[in-house]
Amino acid sequence: MVYLELAAKNNPSVQQKFAEYQAALQKVPQVGSLPDPELNVGVFLSPMELVAGKQVADIRLMQMFPWFGVLKNAKDEMSLMAKAKFESFRETKLQVFYDVQRTWNELQKVQQSILINEKNLEILHSLERLSLVKFKAGSSGGGSPSGSSGSPGNSASAQSSSGMNTMGGNSGNSAPTTSAAMPASPMAASGGSGLADIYRIQMETGELENNIALLKNQEQTIAVRFNKYLNRPSKTLVTLPGKLKADSLTYSLSAVSDSMLSQSPMLGMLDYEQQSLEARKTMVTKMGYPMVGLGMNYSLIGKDPLAMAPDMNGKDMIMPMVTVTLPIYRKKYKAMREEVELMKTANKQGYQATANALQTEYYEALQLFQDAKRRMKLYENQYDLAERSLNILQKSFAVSGTGLTDVLRIRQQALDYELKKIEAISDNNTAIAWLKRLMACSQIQ
């Protein structure tokens, strides 16, 4: 994957850990070298009178040598610490790879959610147009019965009947009035229902448009986070595939469980630290032994005309020297050994805690993986059934104009199932990346 390669090259955390590893390598020649020799030069402002001349200056050179094996153990300690730094670098790189893939899956999930919501928005617009056409058709068709009831013939007969009833003194003329008002009632009910359907669709449309706007904001935020893992400008375009596909785990779960503890960089780092502490313990023990220094003292002698020994007059003197340190203050060496033992104990506890955390992570990743696979299968079937039901209800609504509530309900279910299916695929891919990280797979194909 190109983005993983870019993260390995450009991510600041990865580069920081690699620089720390290279710096740790530079400590090996530092601790493996002898202490700097000491050179002492003394010049007499007034030459000192000797039997065989005048001493002008005194030059002393001394080289100290640690006890046998101290330098070797120091080099071993630093070499092992450098290896521990390299394992820390590997751990950081694997974590960055996982973060990149997890963010990539989130970005794909949001993008697919936007596409799904936009597709459903088009469906709502189609239902709105269809409801508007039916509403207009119902309004125009409802006017003809009203016109026929108000024809001249009918009006005349109504007036005649009304006059006859009045002349006859009959006060029960409510029946004709009720009969004349009945044709307007179905038209009002039909128009009100059609208008309410349009309002409901518009409410659903507003909610969907708000969700799309929210998802687009989320997409921008996730894209910025993704670019920062690659150490790129925030507005850099992230190229995504057109469809979110489910990844497959190329390793068996037993292989992941077996290799997790043996290949973990964190456990490898702690193991190298334990070995370095062993080398340090040996070095500290030998540091409690004497150090030996070898050197030479050179006395510069000038000639003296009055010297009592003419044969030795003006002859320089060379004196070999041996120096031995006396490590009699044993408390500091004992404290150094106790310090190493406590650090070893802490390292062992850290190793066990890290191993426990890895096993916990494995079961969490395994649960996410198995749950995602189950949800992918479930929501695939549920979405297929909801789509079939929606197609049937849409056809029924287009023909009869009834059942809008069922259409909207099934449409919402289909939308939910499709979004949940996308989320399950994203969780599946994230779980696979998590399992690969636990088994220290570089994931660069």
Q: Could you give a short description of this structure?
A:
This protein is an alpha+beta fold and 445 residues long. Helix content is 71%, strand content 10%.
Beta strand count: 4
The CATH homologous superfamily is called Outer membrane efflux proteins (OEP)
Strand portion: 5-15%
- Which oligomeric form is depicted? single chain
Indicate the mean pLDDT: 85
Strand order of the largest sheet: 1-2-3-4
Q: Please state the CA-atom Rg, rounded to the nearest Å.
A: 46 Å
Q: Helical segment tally?
A: 12
Largest sheet: 4 strands, antiparallel
Unreliable stretches covering 5 or more consecutive residues: 142-190
Which bin fits the share of residues in helices? over 70%
Return the domain count.
Answer: 1
Q: Secondary-structure element sequence?
A: HHHEEHHHHHHHEEHH
N-C termini distance: 6 Å
Shape: elongated
CATH architecture call: Up-down Bundle
According to CATH, what is the class?
Mainly Alpha
Protein name: Heavy metal RND efflux outer membrane protein, CzcC family
Subcellular location: Cell outer membrane
Biased composition (Low complexity): 146-187
Main location: membrane
